[in-house]
Amino acid sequence: MVQTLRPLPPPRAWLPPPRPDGRVPVDLLALLPEEMEAYLGSLGEPRYRARQIIAWLHSRAVTDLRQITVLPQSVRERLAQDSFVPVPEILRRQADPVDGTVKYLLRLTDRETVETVLMRYRFGYSLCVSSQVGCRMGCRFCASTIGGLRRNLGASEMVAQLQVAQRDLRQGLRADPPFDRVSRIVVMGMGEPLENLDAVLRFVSLAHLPEGCSIGWRHLTVSTSGLVPAIDRLAQEKMPITLAVSLHAPNDEVRDRLMPINRRYPLDALIPACRRYQEATRRRLTFEYVLIAGVNDLPEHARELADLLRGMSCHVNLIPLNPVAERALLPSSRRATAEFAALLSRMGVPATVRRQLGTSIDAACGQLRHRTLASGVVSDSLQERPIGGISSGGLLDTIQRG
Ligand code: SF4
Question: CA-to-CA distance for 291 and 353, rounded, in angstroms?
């Protein structure tokens, strides 16, 4: 049963930095085509320029508006004065020499930092995008939550992560024909995407634009740790994207220990919400399941999981744990992993073991940022101001008080 709970205070939103005269500039990278047309109309420019600007910003990943040479000089100058494109600074770029994974640590315009990961698969490149600075969900196996939540990202800050990777690929980060672009996106980096749903939906709509990065709906995945009301809201949007639910446990007892969100929305609320989502969208669900030795990887856990998901059109991604130094959790053995996957398959639940990527480059979500900030090599205001009283473990505290 879902208890009546105090809503969590909304995370702090992002706004472009104001101009010296106090005006907030137009957030150009976040504008959808009709909004771009309206904006250009307000400047007395023809509507067709909207598609040109979107193509240059999103597909060519240009960040300096003066470089959009398809526009007259006067328009470029006007845009540069009136609007804003967030350009993150690349603080770290770690490439795994074995599998080609590239992990970026990016500094945003307010000096907050986020991670973005570019992964090489057989089909091409997939980008794992962050949706928040930090996270307040408190999952026990995750480094992103250690410093708590700082703020939501704006849609344009998510597009900016895509631009960084696109630019690297276009400039031949590695000689890798025929792949010179990101072809899939998972919003599965730092943060709980459904806490920032409006910005995330805007971002995936922008990533899908044919004149932009043209990423197919089915190649756009948004994850959640299990925010039931937001899953229901997403179902109403009827966007043909893939929803990936971070499940990680077959029962409330184990999930309570691993994921504090489960005390707010336990499995008897989450699983019906997943079924409602499926009925509304007719899309197959993905369940993410990190395998942790002795915690959730026993044969009885596989059987419970199969019972829980029976009858649902779904796929289970089994993920070998990337250990986080601060957490005393270990990955399952290869044998336990293979047995878990085989048991699920025998019981009619399709499951695959995800290839471990980036093992030599702080692969766990949030680990590069956490280590970098902890080392003090990169100055950051992380220690100075917890957001809205919610810092490390803040969600757990809120649930217990709620
Ligand atoms: S796994 Fe995702 S939701 Fe959980 S703490 Fe990490 S970033 Fe947040």
Answer: 10
